[in-house]
Amino acid sequence: MRLYSQHLLGTIVLSVLVVCIALGGGFQLNEVGARAMAQGGAFAARASDPSAIYFNPAGLGFQGSSIYLGTTFIMPKVTFYGPSNLSLNDETKMVDQTFTPINIYGTYELNDNIHIGLGVTNPYGLGTEWPANWAGQYITQKIDLTSFFITPTIAYKVNDQLSVGAGLNYVTGKVTMKIGTSIPFNGNPPIVNLDLSATGIGFNAGIIYKLIPDLSLGLSYRSSVKLDASGTAKFDPNYTLLSLPNGDATATITLPATGFVGVAYKAMKNLEVEADYQYIGWSSYNELAIGFKADPTKNEVMTKNYQDTYILRFGAEYTMDDIQLRAGYIYDHSPVLTKYVDPMLPDANRNGYSIGVGYKICEQWRVDASYFFLKFDQRKAENTVIAFDGTYNMTATLIGIDIGYTF
Amino acid sequence: MKQYIVLFITLAALIAALLIGCTDSAPTGPVIGLGNSTVTKYVSVGNSLTAGYQSAGLYKSAQLYSYPNLISQQLTKAGATIGTFQQPYWPDPGTPDPSTGKASRYIIIGWSGTTPIIGPAGEALTAGAPENAATLARPYDNLGIPGIPLLGFIDMTGNYNGTNTSAGLNTGIGYAILRQPAGTTSVFHQAAALQPDLVTFWLGANDVLGFAVGGGLIAATGNSPTPSATFQYLYNQALDSLRHALPNAKIVVGNIPYVTSVPFFTTVNPLVAPHIPSGYYMYYQKHLTTGMSMATTTLTEAYSPLITLKGQAYATLLGVSTCQFWRDALGTSFSYSALQAVGIDSSKPFGFHPQNPWPDALILDSLEIAMATNSVNDFNTTIASVAAAHHAALVDFNGFFNNVKANGIVIAGEKYTADYITGEIFSLDGVHPSDRGYGIVANEYIKVINASFGMNVPLVNVSALPKLSAPLSKVGNGKIDPVLPFGAFNSLDLLFSPSVQ
């Protein structure tokens, strides 16, 4: 039986990897499991399903062997009004896109104390696309960042109260960008198409301590990952006399460190509640620098100056026999200062509301579904460094689904 | 248990419906209006910058983007009832170069490798007078006259307002715009007759620029800028007259940028400096020197002299045994013996030998730069105090262009700098703004108008204005090293000589 299940795990992980690797990424994402997502992502103090590999690796210490995999459909809607610094209030709608970050986890109980796992997630990603020839074409037309975190994890259950865990993040990242190039002459500006990729290494670690059986504390940390991306730049149209730096190009992006502190409490026999504070070290994203090997004088540095920030998370899960009902709320504080708000990744403080349901089909199989609505505060960008002021209206709808198999 | 699920689903559906229904409404746009004011007539007074002069010519396709025309369009959007803002439109290719009789404007004539060749293309004129000169039975609203100094505002003799030319009376650009013979009118008279309630007044640049563009050698101004005391007297007189004639008008004046902030003076040094061999120096004539000289430069030292854009063509002759410059400058009166009389020997390497020095007319040496800078400082002090005394608002163009030169400006992600061509602010003559440059100038005016008079006039959408025309199948970018024909910039000297045209 053990042999068989190992084989099954390997087959499923591999085949899903092959299928899902083709899917895109999304925004900066903490949606890495439908069960946690339905509870506002407040999960670090319990980490009681295989998404512990993301939220808190110590959680594996209290779990058996299982597989958990799924995806999230993320549908952002953004409308820009402006640019107001040119006295305009024109409406531009961002091109609708659906992002589908995946999560695949396998956990295995080596013995009572040592548990191992492997996760594949897309915890960082962003993508925006604006109509061709729009007013901000020299700032951005399209950007897509996808990252895959492959995370082998080990947890050690010290006793029934305490577990610790750690993981290694092998990261592959890919960035594609389209930006208009300003030339001093009338005519279609050349669009630079950047296609860059990188790999990087990071780590994560966490601890869960159950003060009393009904009260659990969790702490976890994931390091930043520096991605030195390289690839090609292609200008289109490439005017023959333009000394445009086609060819090798580079960009450096540092994915920020993040940490969770959470407390979970079993308020009633069937009701668990949790509150988390998530810290995100966004100050690592102070600029996006693009280098052109053919002509370094044309290198481009876009100042971002993101600030370290936080997310407050609250969630609850009510269990009735085979069914679990879940709800949650988040407040996400924007890392972007007003003067650096840009259409490449417009951002604002946001409130998020989530609900979800879990259903235990049989002893081995379960399915989790969640719905998450993010309501961004209306963002007025004023005195921006790129002189592209205006107002952004944003919402995002997220739908998550995961299935789990317990051995 | 079932009722819990039903309750939960109901609650969830309710929340979802509420949230989806609450997308933000469109923000209200910028407030637009004239506040408590009305504007029924706007008149602009100035020189070539006000006329919409561009790429060494005055022609309709550029005049449409003159800053006064752009301001008038924005005023109208804010509710001003000024009707059509009348400008003296010269049909393309525009005004003539008196020395050739062909259109004076520069275009990109062709390409040498990847660099544009810039200069007049010998375009035949299509009209000798503005297209609406005969039909408009009143003064033009845009009274910008290329070439005039401050004195041109109240001048009735025709010597300073361009109604005369050295060739004959009532034939210059000023006459085509004022359309009255010398002795009967002035820019001031025509501006006052229109009874505007908004006036922009931007004069004074030619009181120093003419001196500077000619490398500090303009005979008509006595080889020096207008004396500061004279300038002060004239500026007071100008605003006194304007305020007296238009007691309630809103008046906005602009001050004068340093001459060294325009690409005409800043483009060539970085192109030439790398080609001066190590250990060699450029020998150049100092201020007012006509013969051989011992002054030297490598163009890289602190306070180095500035080679003018006009000097770019001659820079290709550095080190060559030639007297090309004197041949071009003196024309038919050129002779070897005259050169030898002042010690110039054309068999020596041009620009690299004291006996064949770089000519004074193509270089602004440190003494000349200091003279020009001191004059601008004095003039701007005068402009600020006289404007304040006459309740006129002030646009600090000197501060603005100094910042452009130091940092550039960014608009909707596009960077604009004081670089020649690639900077996009200046036209092909390196002194006058481009279409977008004039849009940027108009916005500086509008910002001051809004702040001073409580108006909310919308800014010009600079990003929507045209760029330079060039055949895009063959286009250059990045560091463009322009190739200028010998004598390409001669008409600029004429433009800035205060008493011509």
Please tell me about this protein's structure.
- The complex is a heterodimer of chains A (407) and B (501).
- Chain A is mainly beta.
- Chain A has a single domain, classed as Beta Barrel (Porin).
- Chain A is built from three helices and 21 strands.
- Chain A has helices at 2-20, 34-38, 52-55, and strands spanning 66-82, 90-93, 102-109, 114-121, 125-129, 142-157, 162-180, 191-212, 215-222, 225-236, 247-255, 258-268, 271-280, 287-292, 300-303, 309-320, 323-332, 350-360, 365-376, 379-381, 390-406.
- Chain A has a 14-stranded antiparallel beta barrel with strand order 1-3-4-6-7-8-9-12-13-16-17-18-19-21.
- The longest helix of chain A has 19 residues, at 2-20.
- Mean pLDDT of chain A is 89; it is low at 1-6 and 8-27.
- With 501 residues, chain B is α/β, with parallel strands linked by helices.
- Chain B folds into two domains: 42-265 and 367-496, 3-Layer(aba) Sandwich (Rossmann fold), CATH 3.40.50; 267-364, no CATH class.
- In chain B, 33% of the residues lie in helices and 10% in strands.
- Chain B has 17 helices and 13 strands.
- In chain B, the strands form five sheets. In chain B, strands 4-1-5-6-11 form a five-stranded parallel β-sheet, sandwiched between helices. Chain B has a two-stranded antiparallel sheet with strand order 2-3. A two-stranded antiparallel sheet of chain B has the order 7-8.
- In chain B, a hairpin with a 2-residue loop joins strand 12 and strand 13.
- In chain B, helix 4 (67-77) packs across helix 16 (435-453).
- Chain B is globular and about 110 Å long.
- Chains A and B meet through strand 1, strand 17, strand 18, strand 19 and strand 21 of A and helix 1 and strand 12 of B.
